Amino acid sequence: MIQPIRRGAYRFYARRLRAQLAGKSLPRHVAMVMDGNRRWARQVGFDDPGVGHRYGAEHVHEVLGWCADMGIHHVTLFVASVDNMRKRASEEVENLMRMIEEVVAEPLLRPANPWQLHLAGRADVLPDSTRHALKIAEDATRERGAEFHLTVAIGYDGREEIVSAVRSLLEQEARAGATLDDVAQRLTAETLAAHLYTGGQPDPDLVIRTSGERRMSGFLLWQAAYSELYFCDVYWPGFRKIDFLRALRSYSARSRRFGA
């Protein structure tokens, strides 16, 4: 009897949160640091904490559904940093990459899936199979004319992204015959931003990090300069719709200053 009561109370609270957001300013672009998969697995009693990666990967599509339902058209997910790829145990990295291939990339190929995939990060640090699966999904969804855009940050480091953008800009200018002085005179934030992994996409309005950690970990260092930040104590696989709606409620109550 207790479980039905709890489910009913949960649904009532979710509807109440949703009603509070009616007519409020909501983010156009939400970025998420999906943290705490292994800690969640240990918390719920799994012998293998790596099982949390599967639950976390499966949870991605549910959260994307919440975003679409709320009219959020751009979502960026931080899946793995360059340091994650280099420093975590090889078995854990292999498990995570397999989950990305099977649970994240493959469902995006389904015709009914509305999301167009974009990639952000260094493809050279990914296993061949993961790089191939993500590339297939990116190519297959490119011509969708989708109104919903999903960016997966994998093999990603915010400082490396800025360095790469500077290098790309200088190489482009050199091919055009420009001197360093020419580049320096014309350089603006907008021209450099066009060379980021996310060039052409809007910056995130809201960044959500799960697991209780209060740091960015190198995520979207340039793009999130004026983003609102929301830190949630629950681990990613346990991130509920009411947690998501609370984050949106917090965002809607803030007065954005954009650096002022």
From TrEMBL:
Domain of life: Bacteria
Gene Ontology terms describing biological process: polyprenol biosynthetic process
Coiled coil stretches, renumbered: 79-106
Magnesium is among the record's keywords: yes
Keyword set, alphabetical order: Coiled coil, Magnesium, Metal-binding, Transferase
Cofactor: Mg(2+)
Cofactor binding note: Binds 2 magnesium ions per subunit.
GO MF term set: ditrans,polycis-polyprenyl diphosphate synthase [(2E,6E)-farnesyl diphosphate specific] activity; magnesium ion binding; Z-farnesyl diphosphate synthase activity
GO CC annotation terms, alphabetical: plasma membrane
EC number: 2.5.1.-
Catalytic-site annotation from UniProt: D35, N84
Binding site for substrate: G36, N37, R38, R39, W40, H53, S81, V82, D83, R88, R209, R215, M216, S217
Residue numbers binding Mg(2+): D35, E228
Keyword Magnesium listed: yes
Protein family membership: Belongs to the UPP synthase family. Z-FPP synthase subfamily.
Function: Catalyzes the condensation of isopentenyl diphosphate (IPP) with allylic pyrophosphates generating different type of terpenoids.
Subunit annotation: Homodimer.
HAMAP family: ISPT (MF_01139)
Protein name from the UniProt record: Isoprenyl transferase
Organism of provenance: Micromonospora peucetia
